[in-house]
Amino acid sequence: MPSRYPPDRSGRLSNEASNPDIPQHALINIIRIPVNVQVSPIELIVRRVGIALVLIIMVALVAYMEKDGYSEKLSFIDALYYAGVTLSTTGYGDIVPVTQLARLINLFVVTPLRLGFVILLVGTTLSVLTEESRKAWQIQHWRKRMRNHTIIIGYGTKGRSAVAALLADGTSPKDIVVVDKDSRVLEVAEAQGLVTVNGSGTQSNILKLAGVGKAKAVVVAPSIDDTAVLVTLSVRELAPSAWIVVSVRESENQHLLEQSGADSVVISSETAGRMLGLATVTPSVVEMMEDLLSPDEGFSIAERPIADDEVGANPRHLADIVLGVVRSGELYRIDSLEAETVEPGDRLLYVRRVFSDDTEDD
């Protein structure tokens, strides 16, 4: 019996479903687009306070150098006082320049510094507003261009492992969206360069914000099987063409997930149990299985299109170790009759040899 295999799909929904009518600024705390460089608010404030103090000292020194040109002879404390009230535009008027030189210095030196000081005072607020606007623009731009991405619902152990496998297999971080309710794990995902959406995968509005209608694949990896069923139902309703992969703990729930719309169901408890059993009898088999499941080095299972000179050949006789033939979205194992001969348009499921320097032995 041939097993189902994910064809190249892309779901489409109406603009209303895929782009909810929500102001972009309201999504800043829900959707997080990773950035390369971030400056902490404390560092920003300390930096601005330091610049302000430097400007005050500069004006105080300028005033003190021309201390005889003011309405009263200035001490250095008086110069600091004058610099503070002048730069802050308070201007009490008790100390004013009276000589021509002092007034020229005030016009061409102190006045530009005063303008810089005022800009510095409102700079933090302007910076915050600019940052908010930048984030809102990023979210709007991302929501317009996102398509054929992969959504990971649940960033626990299984979700993180799924992301690691995708990244190791060449998927770009910008093509992965993580959905979870825990802001702490979302910070970890964002540090990896992934787009994150804060919310529950059972809510349709959160799934729409993640662009489920345009997603190529959705990985459902919650910690509870009941949640997996609800999430799968919601995803299938919003994205009838997306490829849905679900992880469940108990095999008895497999049929529920398949009825809910899952294309592939991975039973985590039974898989782990088999590995544990094999490890007690044939540990080398477990080591090889782990190697095959790790795409970054050693051996891994991969898929490739057939070459022109391979058409009509028996896949058992090819240079690669072929495990199966993918034809029209269906996987035929190497021992099946359908896999006796390679046909045009087929793809091969084979064992790929990868070295630690990310080069492949073809």
TrEMBL record:
- Recorded topology in the membrane: Multi-pass membrane protein
Question: Could you tell me where this protein is found in the cell?
Answer: Cell membrane
* Gene Ontology CC: plasma membrane
Residues passing through the membrane, by range:
45-64, 76-93, 105-129
Q: Which domain of life is it from?
A: Bacteria
Q: Where is the RCK N-terminal domain?
A: 147-267
| GO annotation, biological process | potassium ion transport
Task: Write the record's keywords in alphabetical order, separated by commas.
Answer: Membrane, Transmembrane, Transmembrane helix
The record's listing under PROSITE patterns reads: RCK_N
Name the PANTHER family on file: POTASSIUM CHANNEL PROTEIN 2-RELATED-RELATED, POTASSIUM CHANNEL PROTEIN YUGO-RELATED
Protein name stated in the entry? TrkA N-terminal domain protein
Q: What is the originating organism of this protein?
A: Corynebacterium matruchotii ATCC 14266
The beginning of the lineage is:
Bacteria, Bacillati, Actinomycetota, Actinomycetes, Mycobacteriales
